[in-house]
Amino acid sequence: MVTVYESGRPPDILLIDDNIGDAKLVEIAFRKTRLPAHVISAGSAEAGLDLLQMQDDDTRQLRPDLVFLDLNLPSMHGLTFLDLMKSDPALTAIPVLVLSSSSAPNDIAASYSRHANGFVTKPSSLDGYLAFAESISEYWFGLRQLPPNAK
Of 80, 70, 115, 124, nearest to 95 (Cα)? Predict the structure, then answer.
């Protein structure tokens, strides 16, 4: 078994967040990590699902190594997205980390009950995002082992 970094390819992160400023901070932070990740942004839950479910002959189907999901999204709430994603057999194994401005116990419990793989309250500064990105990179891409035949 290998880690994402040992596989010889940069990790892919799907970021689902309607806040352009937060999305930019995530992208900057992951470009500055020791082993950079590729961040693909979707501004809504619907756009995120479309990217994950895309099966066009001309476009590679997106299978990110990790999904960052904000909860308070326009139109479709993040918890509804989790329900839909985790009920799709083709998507259920993709890990989802809720990255929310909320730290409410109800949001945390609801996320885990819908099979989120983690919950993190958004950092409040660029330095916080940089520390977050390094921690995520180290664990999700450097320590966590991939199952056979992953990507």
Answer: 115
- Between CA 116 and CA 84 the distance in angstroms is 12
What is the rounded distance in angstroms from the CA atom of residue 37 to the CA atom of residue 32? Answer: 9
Please name which of 21, 120, 114, 115 lies closest in space to residue 68, comparing C-alpha atoms.
Answer: 120
87: nearest Cα among 112, 114, 66: 114
pLDDT of the residue at 132: 95
| Separation of alpha carbons 41 and 5, rounded Å | 21
Q: What is the mean pLDDT of residues 56-81?
A: 84
| Residue 48 belongs to domain spanning | 15-143
d(CA 141, CA 36): 10
- What dihedral do alpha carbons 51, 70, 64, 114 form, nearest 10°? -100
37: CATH: 3.40.50.2300
pLDDT band at 138 (very low <50, low <70, confident <90, very high): confident
